[in-house]
Amino acid sequence: MSALRVGVLAYPGCFASEVFGVPDLLTMATHVAGPGHAGYEVSLVSPRRRVTVSGGAALAVSPLREVDVLVVPGFELLPGLGVDARLGSLAPEIAAIRSHAAAGHAVVSICVGAFLLAEAGLLDGRRATTSWLFADELARRCPDADVRPERLVVTDEGVTTTAAFSAMYDFALELIRRHSGADVARTTARVALVDDARSSQTPYVDARLLPRPGNEFSHRVMRRLDQTLAARYDLTALSHTFNVSTRTLLRRFSDETGQSPLEYLQSSRVRRARHLLETTERTVASISAAVGYQDSATFAALFAKHTGRRPRDYRATFRRGGSGGSGVGSAG
């Protein structure tokens, strides 16, 4: 087996960590595999002579060349900000991505690097993912793509997209698994302290960070539901609170949010339960009751539907502050 040629497309303002993350893990895999393994031939390529990435770091880059896999890192993008100007400044990179794919080689995007692939026309008619924070924007900009916001890594006919930041390691481990074997991938994950058993980005979603519609009516309904989180859901009483019919409430809320009040309430309850599981020692039954479910089994099923994990499994993975009761941590 010959060395797998992997090129990372460096461009102005891309995240430096996403330029080096995949190559570094591939380097570790080569050491794990040992002598005689074909390994990986990695290069940083660009259509530009000079590239300054995030943080102002200048990179030494090589001219574009033929590679087996072209990796496209992400860039800084804030919710609510348009990406047109950003993409407009990256025409040489988008042309390089399009040309590479047209030659029949694999293309991979990390996080919002998916927007460059979309601009190159590679996501039309394909399944794709990106950071959950920007999945709706990607779907809006690329209506012919089948965006899967719950997925960590999606590969469709030679085009791979990943979720945010650390999902580059999920992709890299899959690449190592295919090129170097499952044992090498598993050992590399252990050496690097990388989780090789993740399957979804759903547990990481924080709905509070998602852009909300601007209409005040739905905001007031949301606030009311949040204030009465543990109370029994009563659509008629909720309608009376806002002096509208149940039909009008459902229509206006759906028009503004794309969901029903009950769906919002369920997601809000799960969000609160996640916080309690992460920061307290309360039992699952106690947390279930605190967010409006007397039947723990019903709560557990709903929680698993929203997060992909049962409550106890979620706590084991995301528990903050050890056994300190209410320690607070942060994710990078």
Pick out its properties:
six-stranded mixed beta sheet, alpha/beta, two-stranded antiparallel ribbon, 45% helix
Ends: how far apart? Answer: 37 Å
Kindly name the structural category: alpha/beta
- Contiguous low-pLDDT stretches (5 residues minimum) are 322-332
**Beta-strand content:** 5-15%
Mean pLDDT metric: 89
* Radius of gyration over C-alpha positions, nearest whole angstrom: 23 Å
Strand order of the largest sheet: 2-1-5-6-10-9
Order of helices and strands: EHEEEEHHEHEHEEEHHHHHHHHH
Helix content: 40-55%
Shape from CA axes? Answer: globular
Biggest β-sheet strands, sense, barrel? 6 strands, mixed
- The number of helical segments is 14
Q: Using DSSP, what is the number of strands?
A: 10
Structural features, described:
This protein has 332 residues and is of the alpha/beta class. It is built from 14 helices and ten strands. It has helices at residues 16-33, 84-88, 91-102, 114-119, 135-141, 167-180, 182-192, 216-227, 235-241, 246-257, 261-279, 284-290, 296-307, 311-318, and strands spanning 4-9, 40-45, 51-52, 58-59, 69-72, 106-109, 127-128, 146-147, 153-156, 159-162. A six-stranded mixed beta sheet has the order 2-1-5-6-10-9, with helices on both faces. A two-stranded antiparallel sheet has the order 3-4. Strand 7 (127-128), helix 5 and strand 8 form a beta-alpha-beta unit. Helix 6 (167-180) packs antiparallel against helix 7 (182-192) and helix 11 crosses helix 13 (296-307). The radius of gyration is 23 Å and the shape is globular. Mean pLDDT is 89; it is low at 322-332.
